[in-house]
């Protein structure tokens, strides 16, 4: 099952990536080339196999740690915003969303 | 011996006995780095701060303070680690000029140990690649042949250490990004067990695979660095909870039953038959087999084992890693940090254009693959199936470790290729990752050890893979090999 140009534009939209026509065309060929090597995966019978989402779960119980509920960070707003493209008075600026 | 030929351990000793000062070593290496800019290894050179740090360590030493074995030793960081005061770019236009408000845990720990950082090292964009050609800031050249790639994604780290610009550097390995550049550049690198080094402050690529580790000239130097950079960190939810490790002591500990001539007596090394396919380049096969014969002479026993899903690890990895990458890279929206397009019509258009302009071709491909395999209707067939196969791959390793202590084979199917050789087909580069991906998927520790030279005089690395948390045993075996051989000490011509 090969991807179509419509699939590529749908995925690009989901990924919030603007692709120009030449990029979309190249992407279609490359993705289809890639999914050809993926097909061998579907031939394997994995019924009853537990997925391994995090590798150490293969050898030990994967537990999520909880930390104490206390303030550990100080206010670093200006440093945290130092690399923001557009800020004003401590706020991140974006194009108008609500008219 | 010129200062730039001294490794981490030797420099540490010379500094401790005050045969040389950190200021002298740092100045000497800064001069070499400046003279070798054409290699493309460095993205940022932090000369003024490095000299200040070196001076203050020299003063502390002069005042009689007890300092550790790394105090005053120069290093540099792969530009995937965020650093305060020096831009952190991850090799991407998206993060050009980005100033981090904090240091990565690995960076902070090495600084605490007294390492002097000389700057930031080039890498593939967001660590996605195996040739360093995907950096937005230009490629890195291999010191053994500047027409060839140094490997990737930690290509700047590998080239800088091979060219004697640094005794050691940090790197990260998601699917082979420490081991493969170490192999291509003729140096030693170790990717520890997942969870050994904190991922806090490592720009995230694939969170269930990313691990930090050192690249240096010897196993001993790697052991010293790894001891300082590893350890539990509560800021990383997947950090392994265990006491600090002295990998150097573990490396030196003699095996029961070992003798001076046979330090590896009793060690069983498994050779997966799938790691020696007919398609393996003859020079790599010959070099790796010769190195394994040396391990036999040192007392090790070689046995045949099987990792039947080695080839499947390619699609499994290239589903899981892009899936995680597409989620991690969703944060780059042109709002809080990173590139923002100059022209756009509305918020959605701003996201689409900022990301289109900020990301390079390989990153876009992986975001597209990841978004697709996680999308409605495809999740079970691709992502879930890949995670089940990942479990089977991890189980295959445990089968092997029932028969052997270590697994060995080549790091890569060929020596380093020429710049531009794989431009036409990204899948070709994915296929070349075949031998490093299985250990990454299982979360196992792996090393690349210089094993000799292949076609064109290019270095060949031997891969050693251990069971979970057996870095000490890996380093011990590599160290024994390096005591008997000198491949790791060879210097590329022109960089002596």
Secondary-structure topology with pairs:
The complex is a heterodimer of chains A (99) and B (496).
Chain A: H1 5-14, H2 21-42, H3 77-80, E1 87-88, E2 91-92
Antiparallel strand pairs in A: 1-2
Chain B: H1 8-16, H2 22-35, E1 42-45, H3 47-62, E2 74-78, H4 105-112, E3 116-121, H5 155-162, E4 168-173, H6 179-185, E5 188-191, E6 211-216, H7 219-229, H8 247-252, E7 268-272, H9 282-297, E8 301-305, H10 313-328, H11 347-358, H12 361-373, H13 380-401, E9 406-410, H14 426-431, H15 437-442, E10 446-453, E11 459-466, H16 471-484
Parallel strand pairs in B: 2-3, 7-8, 7-9
Antiparallel strand pairs in B: 1-3, 4-6, 5-6, 5-10, 9-11, 10-11
Helix pairs in contact in B: 2-3, 5-6, 7-16, 10-12, 10-13
Give a brief description:
The complex is a heterodimer of chains A (99) and B (496). By secondary structure, chain A is mainly α.
Explain this structure.
The complex is a heterodimer of chains A (99) and B (496). Chain A has a two-stranded antiparallel ribbon. Chain A has a domain of 43 residues: Glu-tRNAGln amidotransferase C subunit, N-terminal domain (Histone, subunit A, Orthogonal Bundle), CATH 1.10.20. The two termini of chain A are 44 Å apart. Chain A is 36% helix and 4% strand. Chain A is flat, with a radius of gyration of 23 Å. The longest helix of chain A is centred in the N-terminal third of the chain and has 22 residues. With 99 residues, chain A is mainly alpha-helical. With 496 residues, chain B is an alpha/beta fold. Chain B has a domain of 252 residues: Amidase signature (AS) domain (Amidase signature (AS) enzymes, Alpha-Beta Complex). Helix content of chain B is 37%, strand content 12%. Chain B contains 16 helices and 11 strands. Chain B has an 8-stranded mixed beta sheet, sandwiched between helices. In chain B, a hairpin with a 5-residue loop joins strand 10 and strand 11. In chain B, helix 2 runs antiparallel to helix 3, helix 5 runs parallel beside helix 6 and helix 10 crosses helix 13. The N and C termini of chain B lie close together (10 Å). The chains are: A mainly alpha (99), B alpha/beta (496). At the A-B interface, helix 1 and helix 2 of A face helix 10, helix 11, helix 12, helix 13 and helix 14 of B.
